[in-house]
Design brief:
This protein is an alpha+beta fold. It folds into five domains: 14-195, tricorn interacting facor f3 domain (Immunoglobulin-like); 196-304, Zincin-like, CATH 3.30.2010.30; 311-443, Neutral Protease Domain 2 (Neutral Protease, domain 2, Orthogonal Bundle), CATH 1.10.390.10; 449-545, Immunoglobulin-like (Sandwich), CATH 2.60.40; 734-864, Zincin-like fold. Helices cover 41% and strands 21% of the residues. It contains 27 helices and 32 strands. The strands form nine sheets. Strands 6-5-9-3-2-12-15-14 form an eight-stranded mixed beta sheet, with no helix packed on it. The protein has a five-stranded mixed beta sheet with strand order 17-18-19-21-20, with helices on one face. A four-stranded mixed beta sheet has the order 30-26-25-32, with no helix packed on it. Helix 9 (561-581) packs across helix 13, helix 14 runs antiparallel to helix 15 and helix 15 packs parallel to helix 17. The longest helix has 34 residues, at 380-413. The structure holds (3S)-3,7-diaminoheptanoic acid and zinc ion. Its EC number is 3.4.11.2. InterPro entries: Aminopeptidase_N-like_N, Aminopeptidase_N-like_N_sf, PepN_Ig-like_sf, Peptidase_M1, Peptidase_M1_dom, Peptidase_M1_pepN, Peptidase_M1_pepN_C, Peptidase_M1_pepN_C_sf. It is an enzyme of class 3 (hydrolase). GO terms for molecular function: alanyl aminopeptidase activity; metallopeptidase activity; zinc ion binding. Residues 549-864 form the Peptidase M1 alanyl aminopeptidase C-terminal domain.
Length: 864
């Protein structure tokens, strides 16, 4: 295997200015003819070396002159399983290449493949080389003209840009020709052929241009597409309002397919989506699903500017488009739904998944330096931490400064393939702050820890010291101090806010740019509570040893709703720690008193209350501990949940009863109510006397949110109750795989001893197939990521089960296998008995002959 390094970047030796593709579809013999206009860059006499992944050459012409393969007596092309080297001395020429592929045998879902009877493509990051020979790198931009030929079975033949011609062919086939005037890298190429239901609409842009909107879904699913289409229009409007960015083609198409490795793909003018992020109606989609559909539709749309118009120079720069686009979709979602729940949602992702990535052997900066398989770097670090870095620009520059920086970015780089440094430099032009230290966020990996100390001085002064330290990571040992905006509130017992004597706190924010900094506050005898890193103003951990009293003060008086939620989370964490130390302990009555009064005070603020009543997930708790013994931590968490339900029974019941069920609508106030009610139901379900609430909600529900809420709660009820509701659910949704995925996942996350029998049963379910990533993720992925107790069972059976499965899956779909191997590679946080067993399975994987480079990269790093 070959390691690619960011430092080795070289500009392309040739450019391809235009591409003419002619694709005649066939399941096992699709013919691809490409005609490329090639120009040499600079003066050199290197051959033209194209990428091509196991492709044959049927015919090759240079300016119409045939070229044969190299032989002893002629200087022809050299074909390997990954490249095609063409000796040529012209500076400008037309290259004609005929090749062929077999979409029906393509189970890796990269390149051109068949998804449930429709042809579709996925080219990012390096899939175009599985379709035809090309300079498969993002800094080669070309204008595409594509002719798609197919039988009548596929009435819809789509590609990027605008349709310019179509017609019938003599052999019963037909064709459509597409032209995309915007030069693009080949990873944005797409082709789709199939028979779909079509939803159409239109959008008038801010300059009055009419854009046709087309959404293609499986036959019979038309009614489930309206929400996605409405979301698209909201996203188009938002990008005009907030960033002044307008759409640039006459048509915008979205196709939903069932077989897809990730969420969606932003191909120019022709997005291809996992149907999970398109189809939604009240009977089949939860509020979270609706949220995700809107967020992903927006994300892909926003890529049209941040990704397509301005793209990446090389794949190490991925966060240039992904971090920025995630930030944009987060801002959009916050505007469409609610700022608070959005922030909490995204911070949970950081704390559960990004922090664990940083603590593992896959730790990398948001701009990685070394890559074996690029697909392994579509990570929470590049995406979500990347978005947090953009958020810090936004914090530091302010709304207007950020907008100015963005305008400058587009002014300088529209139509180019650029780097993260180019982005920083555009931002730099919009601020008087010096961003050079800040840009360390791009190159330094790891999660910084901010420590807070408080020291009483004479004459009633208190000195606060903030210090930062980034623990070394597997990829980097030496760490430097980062430039961090830190939101801070200094709160007195009665809720009064204090300011500092030195004036380092500005607008509730301090800049920490050294190892440590101090400031003093006149406390005049008062107890002060510092709430630090409000709103998660930097992607860091905080070590702020506060008393329960102080945490309750933050909850009671904090200005920032996020801080209030966070204080509650710390209280729960602290209680769970106590139970870890002494399992028989009962939690201090004062805490229950505090929570009870919090509940009664906030009973009308269902949004905050709902979030505050969520106990931190097992995964989040792991990130706050070292050498986790899974059984011990689970036991303590479960014990805390039981005490929580018992101690707060009356208060929880009050909340439950105060929220009346209304007919379903997806609007924020209703979403908040359902959320809060379902959180409370899950607590009450731990008490046998409330089992009936669960079954009643299940029976009465008119929407998937409440139905699934009831099912989740039923996980805590008697087994008979759970089983019978699950059976009813399966019967009702037997024909809908996307809904069944929820059912699969609930089964796979049950912490029961017979889990392997259950999973085997799930894998034999008529709706299950290993070739569909959504199914695999819902069964095997859910088990590995979220069934911590059984995955980490100390007889090693969970680890072995996952490894066994991955060995089979890897042959079919390496990308998905490499995703699911993640929990196994994150052994660093666990106790030694876990580590040994996890490494044993990683060793088995590593020794396996024919392992994909996707899985190899993660497993070998993990064992290094
Ligand atoms: N850019 C794609 C992700 C491609 C993943 C390739 N393995 C979707 C997105 O981030 O919008
Ligand atoms: Zn993206």
């Amino acid at each position: 295997v070959q390691i690619k390094r960011r430092a080795d970047y070289k500009p392309p030796a040739f450019l391809i200015t235009t591409v003419d593709l002619h694709v005649t579809l066939h399941p096992t013999d699709t013919r691809v003819i490409s005609t490329l206009k090639v120009t040499r860059q600079g003066s050199h006499n290197q051959p033209l070396v194209l990428d091509g992944d196991n492709l044959p050459v049927h015919k090759l012409l240079i300016d119409n002159a045939p070229l044969a393969a190299k032989s002893d007596d002629n200087d022809g092309y050299i074909l390997t399983d990954s490249s095609l080297s063409i000796p040529v001395d012209k500076n400008e020429f037309t290259l004609y290449i005929e090749t062929s592929i077999a979409p029906d045998n393509n189970k890796a879902l990269e390149g051109l493949y068949l998804s449930g009877g429709a042809y579709c493509t996925q080219c990012e990051a390096e899939g175009f080389r599985r379709i035809t020979f090309f300079l498969d790198r993002p800094d080669v931009l070309s204008v595409y003209t594509v002719t798609v030929v197919g039988d009548e079975k596929y009435p819809m033949l789509l590609s990027n840009g605008n349709p310019v011609d179509k017609g019938q062919l003599s052999d019963g086939k037909h064709f459509v020709k597409w032209h995309d005037p915007h030069p693009k890298p080949c990873y944005l190429f797409a082709l789709v052929a199939g028979d779909f239901d079509l939803l159409t609409d239109s959008y008038t842009t801010m300059s009055g241009k009419e854009v046709a909107l087309e959404l293609y879904v499986d036959k019979g699913k038309k009614h489930q597409g309206t929400f996605a289409l409405e979301s698209l229009k909201r996203a188009m409007k938002w990008d005009e309002d907030v960033f002044g960015l307008e759409y640039d083609l006459d048509i915008y198409m979205i196709v939903a397919v069932d077989f897809f490795n990730m969420g969606a793909m932003e191909n120019k003018g022709l997005n291809v989506f996992n149907s999970k992020f398109v189809l939604a109606d009240q009977d089949t989609a939860t509020d979270d699903d609706f949220f995700n559909v809107e967020a992903v539709i927006a994300h892909e749309y926003f890529h049209n500017w941040t990704g397509n118009r301005v793209t990446c120079r090389d794949w190490f720069q991925l966060s240039l488009k992904e971090g920025l686009t995630v930030f944009r979709d987060q801002q959009f979602s916050a505007d469409m739904t609610s700022e608070l729940s959005n922030r909490i949602k995204h911070v949970r992702v950081m704390r559960e998944h990004q922090f664990s990535e940083d603590a593992s052997a896959m730790s990398h900066p948001i701009r990685p330096d070394e890559v074996i398989e690029m697909n392994n770097f579509y990570t929470v670090t590049v995406y979500d931490k990347g978005a947090e870095v953009i958020r810090m620009f936004h914090t530091l520059l302010g709304v207007d400064g950020f907008r100015q920086g963005m305008d400058e970015y587009f002014r300088r780089h529209d139509g180019q393939a650029v780097t993260c440094d180019d982005f920083v430099s555009a931002m730099q032009s919009a601020t008087s702050l010096d961003l050079s230290q800040f840009s360390l966020w791009y190159s330094q990996s790891g999660t910084p820890v901010i420590s807070v100390e408080q020291q009483e001085l004479e004459n009633g002064k208190v000195q606060f010291t903030l210090s930062q330290r980034t623990p070394k990571t597997s990829d980097q040992h030496d760490k430097q101090p980062l430039y961090m905006p830190i939101n801070i509130e200094i709160i007195g017992q009665g809720g009064e806010l204090y300011s500092d004597n030195e004036g380092v706190i500005n607008d509730g924010m301090v800049i920490l740019d050294k190892e440590s900094m101090s400031f003093t506050v006149d406390a005049s005898g008062n107890v002060l509570t510092p709430a630090v890193l409000g709103n998660f103003s930097a992607p860091a951990k905080v070590d702020n040893p506060l008393s329960t009293e102080s945490l309750l003060t933050i909850f009671k008086h904090g200005k920032d709703a996020f801080n209030r939620w966070d204080a509650m989370q710390s209280i729960y964490d602290r209680c769970i720690r106590e139970l870890e130390q002494s399992p028989e302990a009962s939690i201090d009555e004062n805490i229950w008193v505090g929570i009870r009064s919090a509940i009664s005070r906030e009973i009308d603020n269902v949004e905050l209350l709902g979030e505050c009543l969520v106990i931190p997930s097992f995964e989040t708790l792991c990130q706050l501990r070292t050498s986790v013994d899974v059984a011990e931590l689970s036991k303590a968490r479960t014990e805390f949940c039981h005490q929580f339900a018992q101690q707060l029974e009356a208060a929880l019941l009050d909340v439950f009863n105060s929220i009346e069920s209304k007919p379903y609508s997806y609007e924020q106030s209703a979403v908040n109510q359902r959320r809060c009610k379902n959180v409370v139901l899950a607590h009450l379900a731990l008490l046998p006397q409330y089992e009936h609430l669960v079954t009643e909600q299940f029976e009465a529900s008119d929407n998937m949110t409440d139905t699934l809420g009831a099912l989740r709660s039923a996980q805590f009820c008697r087994k008979e109750v759970f089983d019978s509701l699950m059976a009813k659910f399966e019967q009702r949704y037997n024909k809908d795989p996307l809904v069944l995925d929820k059912w699969f996942a609930l089964h796979a996350t049950q912490p029961t001893k017979d889990i392997f029998a259950t999973i085997t049963m799930l894998c034999e379910h008529p709706q299950f197939t290993m070739s569909n990533p959504n199914r695999v993720r819902s069964v095997i992925g859910s088990f590995a990521f979220y069934n911590s107790e059984m995955f980490h069972a100390l007889d090693g059976s969970g680890y072995k089960f996952v490894a066994d499965y991955l060995l089979k899956l890897d042959k079919l779909n390496p990308q998905v296998a490499a995703r699911i191997v993640t929990p196994l590679t994150q052994w660093q946080g666990f106790a030694s008995q876990h580590q040994r067993l996890m490494k044993e399975q990683l060793g088995r994987l590593l020794n396996h002959k024919g392992l994909s480079k996707d899985v190899f990269e993660k497993v070998s790093k993990s064992l290094a």
